[in-house]
Amino acid sequence: MWIFEGILYVILLLVFIRYDRKKRLWIKTVSQEEKFEHYLSELSATYGKQKNIEEAVAEVEESHTVTLPTEHSYVRIYGAMCAVIREDGDMLSDGYSVFQRNLQYLKEEIRENLLLCKSKMHGFTGLDVLSVLPVCFLPVVRLWAIRVSEGLSAYYYGSYGMLTTVLLFVATIGIYGLILWLFLPDEEQKDRYRLEKWLLQFPWMAYLLDVYVSRHYTKCLKKNEQIKQLQGFGNVRAFLMKKVCFFAAALLGSVLFLTVYQNAERSQILTQIKIPSYQLMMLPERAQEQVKKQYQELVAQVVPETFKMDQEAFKEHLEQLAVWEELKQELSLTESVQGAEEFVKALFLQVRAYQGIRIAWYHILFIVVVSILAFQIPELFLVAEQWKSREKRMSECLRLQTVVLLLIHYEKTTVEEILSQMENFAVLFQSQMAEAVDHFSYDRIRSLQKLKQEIPDEPVQRICDALEFCEELPVEEAFLNLEDEREYFLKKNMEERRNYQGECIALAKMAAYLPMFLLIILKLVVPFVAEGLSELHAYSQSMTGFF
C-alpha cells in the first residue's frame, strides 16, 4: 500500500512541478509586460522631444531594457511600428504624431491587460495550494485514525482504502489542473500533437485513420475546421490519434487498477481473523496474538490446497493439518462440537471469498465503459477550449485593430498589405487570414466576404467592411471610424473579460474545496461510521454467544 501510494505522490509531484513552472513563467511574463509598458511611456516622451526614432530608442535603452521574448505579440507590434517609421518616416494626423499615437494604442492595450492579469492573480491566490493540501495530510489522517481504533486498518489498508486513495488522488490532480487551466492563458504550442504525429509515422496507423476519415469525410471536415478555429493549427488526423491514445491509456490503466485492486482484496482476506470475539476474550493477551498468528498461517496454507472443495471435503482436509489441531486446543474447540462447526464454516467462507476473486463480467464492463469515456475526453477538452477561447478571441480582435491602425495613415498602404500584416499577427484566425490573402489577388470581394463568414467577431467584420470600401475610397477614409470603434471595443472587451474572469474565479473557488470534502467523507466519516456499526454488530453477537 505504501509503495502504491508513493507512486501516486510522485505523479502528483510531477504534475505540480509542471504546472507550477508554467505559473511562474506566466507571472514573469506579466512582470515583463509591465516593464515594457514603462519602456513605451519613456520612448513616447523621449521621441516627442527629439523627433528621431534612432536617438530616442538609444536614449531610452540606457535606462530601460526590453526583456519580453521577441516572439511576444507586443514586441512584434512594436517592432512593426519602428520598421514603418524607419522606412516611411513619421507623419502628422490631426496635429498629432502617428507614431506616438500608435504607441499610445499599444500602451492602452498593455495597461488594460495588466489590470486584468493582476485582478486574476488576486482572485486565484492560494487556490492551487488549497486543492493539493488535503492529499498531503492523508498519511497523518490514516495514522491518527488507526491509533484511535485499530479496527480501522482494514478500511485504510484494504481494498476500500486503495479505491478511495486512487479516487482522491485522481480528483486532486484533475481539480488542480482545472484551477491552473482557468488561471493560465492558453499556450500557443505548435507541438501539442507531438506524440500523435510520431505515432502517425507508422504506415498502418495512418492507413486506419485515413480509412476512417474517408468514410466520415463531412464530419471530419467540420471537426478539422473547429480545431483550426480554436487552436490556429492542428488537424483532424492528429486529433483522432489523440482520442486513440486516451482510449489505450484508459484500457491499460483500468486493467492495471483491477489487478492491483484484486491483489489488495486477497491480502485483506488473508489478514482477516474470523475467530469469534467471545472466544478470544477468554484467552490472555499474549495467547490471543499467538492464536491470531496461527489462524493466519492456517488460512495461507489451506487457500491453495482446497480449490473447488465443498464444505465436507474442506473439513476432512482441515482435520489432517497440524496447525488446525493446535488451534482447536488453544480455543478449546475439541470439547465443543457446535463451536468447531461454526469455526470451520467461517473459515470455509473466508477461503471461498479468496478463491472467488477473479475477473467477472462486470469487470470487463468497467474496463469497456472507462475506455469509451476516455475516448471522448479530447472532445470535452475541445468544448472547454471553445468556452475559454472567448477571452483569446477578444484579445486577438483588439490586436488586429491595433495592427490596422499602424498602417492606414500611410498613402502607399494597400489592402493586400493590411491583410498580410493581419495574417502575420493572427493566431486563432491565421488559417482564415492566410486563405483570404491567397485568394485576394484574383477575387478580392469574394475573399473578404468569405473571411467575414468564417470569422463572425464584430471587430473583424468591421475591418472587412472597410477593406471592401477601399475599392472606392482611400484607405485612411475607409477606416475613418476605426479609432472610435477600437475605443468602444476596448471598453467592451474589458467588461466582458472581467465577467469571464469572475466566472473562472467562482468555478475555481468551488472546485478548490472539493478535495478537502472528499478527504473528510471518504477517509473519516465513512470508515468511522462503518467501524462503529461493525463493532456494534460484533458486540451484539458476542453477548449472544456469551449467554
From TrEMBL:
Sequence intervals crossing the membrane: 6-21, 124-145, 157-184, 244-261, 359-384, 504-526
Keywords from the UniProt entry: Membrane, Transmembrane, Transmembrane helix
Protein name (record): Uncharacterized protein
Organism: Roseburia inulinivorans DSM 16841
